[in-house]
Design goal:
It contains 3 helices and no strands. It is mainly α and about 100 residues long. The protein has a domain of about 50 residues. It is rod-shaped and about 120 Å long.
């Protein structure tokens, strides 16, 4: 019986050593593929956000140098606000 237990103990040590080697190899491979998978995950997240919130796509298109509609809209709004302030401060004419 002691011989059988010794064989089992040796087999156990062999399996533990093999598991440690495989764990080490897996850790090494995971470090190699981690960066590309992280990049792919980020890109997929951006794609999902653009699909759920398409206003991001439209607004980013409007901010390109060719289409600066949002920038012009801000300028027009600021001009309108300045006009309103000046108009309220300007003395009113009496008929």
């Amino acid at each position: 019986m002691s011989r059988r237990l010794d064989e089992i103990e040796q087999r156990k040590q062999l399996l533990v050593a093999r598991a440690n080697i495989q764990r080490s190899e897996l850790s090494y491979l995971a470090r190699i593929v981690d960066r590309p998978f992280r990049l792919a995950d980020t890109l997929l997240g951006i794609g999902r956000a653009l699909r759920v919130y398409p206003v991001f796509t439209v607004s980013s298109r409007l901010l390109t140098p060719k289409h600066q509609l949002l920038l012009w809209a801000g300028r027009i709004f600021a001009g309108w606000e300045m006009y309103r302030i000046i108009r309220m401060q300007w003395p009113k004419r009496r008929p």
